[in-house]
Amino acid sequence: MAEKNGKLGVTNKQIRAIYAIAREQGITEEKLKKHIKKKYGKESISDLTLQEASELIDCLRKVEEYQEAKDKNGDGIKEVRKWLTRIEEKMQAIEEKLTILETRYEKVLDRLISEVELKQGLRLSMLEEQMRALRAMLKEYFKEEVKEHEQK
Question: Which long-range contacts (CB under 8 A, 24 or more apart) does 6-12 make?
């Protein structure tokens, strides 16, 4: 426990409890941070005082009790929230993997484009050489044609 402005700071046990209760209720870390910012004016859980953390835990437990009472009535909201939380976590993991794959794909694509441009550049230079050679041959041919025509 550290002192913050003369008040004791949140404990590791409280932090774990807050995350555990929130996770059980389907509250994402983002929503939890927004609530802490709005209610306490703090950026993160670790910025809370001991008293504020206790208050937050009590509040989360009251919400949990309320949800359990609703679940006893058969509406299943708690289970749905758990599933939604799991789905959101999996979606985040998938988005992170997609971002990594997209980055890899872009690098591979850039390499392929560079290789194609290099090959095309080589082909163009070969074509240019062949065109020059063909022009030179045509000039020679037409010079001979002109000479033959003049001689007639």
Answer: 7/49, 7/50, 7/51, 8/49, 8/50, 8/51, 9/46, 9/48, 9/49, 9/50, 10/45, 10/46, 10/47, 10/48, 10/49, 10/50, 10/52, 10/53, 11/50, 11/53
* DSSP class of 5: T
Please give the pLDDT value at position 74.
Answer: 58
Q: What is the pTM of this model?
A: 0.44
Which one-letter DSSP state was computed for residue 9? B
Between 66 and 50, name the one with better pLDDT: 50
Give one DSSP letter per residue of 48-77, joined into a string. SBHHHHHHHHHHHHHHHHHHHHHHHTT--H
